[in-house]
Design goal:
Radius of gyration: 19 Å
Bound molecules: adenosine monophosphate, magnesium ion
Distance between the termini: 28 Å
Order of helices and strands: EEEEHHHHHHEEEEEEHEEH
Helix content: 25-40%
Shape: globular
Number of helices: 8
Largest sheet: 8 strands, antiparallel
Structural class: alpha+beta
Length: 309
């Protein structure tokens, strides 16, 4: 397969200058559009990958009453296997990020429900939901939620992308773009565009990735506007409100998509100082686009990923 030069508008559909030898398989799962670009011979693998996303949705969905997570949250089920692995990994990121990343944010995600809401909840409602939030409540030894519920929306797609990547590698696939709603994993080398937080469907800058995941968290992804103010989907677990700061988007690059997914959310909440979190993980870096348009990156990022503004 010829080297593809693609613009991946992260958190948007891929605009891909694909060669005739490639095909993109599309699907919808995990509340997001999925597209997987592979060479034609690997189309069956891409179709299986989309099925895999649906299978993981049945484990990780917070809103599907048949999911394993629903049973943990509402029916007293003790999580095991991959669900428990994701919960434990999430807790480790909560500790490292001092609670900026926190899967016990579910009472607040449910309350804010930015997909359907048109006006913010009351301060009293937020204070009540906040009482049940805090990763330290979770006891994974005897497994007890201690009044909270879990939301894996900030990590499930990353975990799934890792699993698809592993499957593809095991099948000897050498070129692929796995895009789970902007949660990207590339096999092979690709130049990708990071979506502008300021203009729809425009790339703000480009980076070159090889066998890496890129995940973006941004205030422009899911939100509603009310009386001139934007309320987005990333919540500061300390305040109970959508996190406020001077960051427009955070993109984390890592060979572990679940790490990139969790850290992009954590850094978005915690702010630019939290770029240092990347150094705690193997081969992981980040790029922040500030509200005023400035770009901030981790040390060595610009050369390593051939950043072009
Ligand atoms: P992401 O787009 O990966 O940054 O994840 C955002 C999604 O994760 C939201 O839609 C919520 O479901 C959930 N979420 C919101 N705030 C947080 C947080 N501070 N920590 C963990 N998950 C969160
Ligand atoms: Mg995330």
């Amino acid at each position: 397969m010829k080297k593809l030069i693609c613009i991946l508008l992260i958190s948007n559909l891929i605009l891909c200058a694909c060669s005739k030898k490639n095909e993109t398989v599309h699907g919808f799962a995990m509340d997001t559009y999925i597209s997987i670009t592979v060479s034609k011979k690997d189309v069956p693998a891409a179709k299986s990958a989309i099925k895999k996303c649906r299978d993981y949705e049945k484990i990780f969905s917070r809103t599907d009453k048949k999911s394993e997570l629903w049973k943990v949250n509402h029916e007293g089920k003790t999580p095991s296997g991959e669900l428990l692995d994701v919960i434990n990994f999430s807790l480790s990121v909560s500790e490292k990020s001092d609670g900026a990343f926190d899967i016990t944010v579910a009472p607040l995600s449910t309350l804010w429900n930015v997909k359907e809401r048109t006006y913010p909840p009351s301060a009293e409602e937020i204070a009540n939901a906040l009482k049940n939030v805090g990763y330290k409540r979770l006891d994974t030894q005897s497994f007890s939620l201690n009044g909270t519920t879990l939301d894996l929306g900030a990590i499930a797609k990353g975990y799934t992308a890792d699993k698809i990547f592993e499957d593809f590698k095991a099948q000897g696939i050498k070129k692929a773009i796995i895009d789970l709603g902007g949660n990207i994993y590339v096999i092979g080398e690709y130049t990708v565009g990071i979506r502008s937080p300021f203009k729809t469907d425009e790339a703000y800058c480009t980076i070159t990735l090889k066998d890496k995941s890129a995940v973006t968290s941004g205030a422009y992804q899911r939100y509603f506007d009310y009386e001139g103010k934007r309320y987005h989907h990333i919540i500061d677990p300390k305040t109970g409100y959508p996190s406020e700061g001077d960051i427009a988007s955070v993109t984390v690059i890592s060979p572990s998509s679940k790490t990139a997914d969790a850290l992009s959310t954590a850094i978005f909440v915690k702010g630019t100082d939290a770029l240092s979190l990347c150094s705690l993980y193997d081969d992981t870096g980040a790029l922040i686009i500030m509200n005023d348009g400035e770009i901030k990156t981790t040390e060595g990022f610009d050369e390593k990923y051939n950043l072009k503004k």
